[in-house]
Amino acid sequence: MSSATLMQLCRIGYLALVALLAGYFIQQGINGDYSMVFSVLWILPLLLPLKGVITGNPYTYAWASFILCLYLLHGLTLVYVTEELLLFAIIESVLISLLLIGFPFYARKRGRELGLGLKKHKNKDK
């Protein structure tokens, strides 16, 4: 799979996740289950890597996985504790799990294409 195809898949998955969670948290705020401030605070971390994900910056794809872990915990907790939102929680958890595989894979693949990465430290003792 080319890095361009992988980036498109990750981008579509990320935007779907943003739409899914924004809709969920805004609905919870409107219903009064959560305050609107709390709902917005839940969405903000997910929006931090938006520009880098859209532009295809491999560095952003690498660190965005850490943010996704927070939402994976949310999804897995919902799977465990709810029956009403079980389908939503499963979709959220599966989508995030796929992104947690795709994001680092794209970052590594594209980083190698661009020649990015950790430089090898030369041993000065020799």
TrEMBL record:
The chain crosses the membrane at residues 12-30, 36-54, 61-80, 86-107. The keyword Protein biosynthesis does not apply. Keywords: Membrane, Transmembrane, Transmembrane helix. Coiled coil: none annotated. InterPro entries: DUF2069_membrane. It comes from the Bacteria. It holds the Pfam family DUF2069. The keyword Phosphoprotein does not apply. This is DUF2069 domain-containing protein.
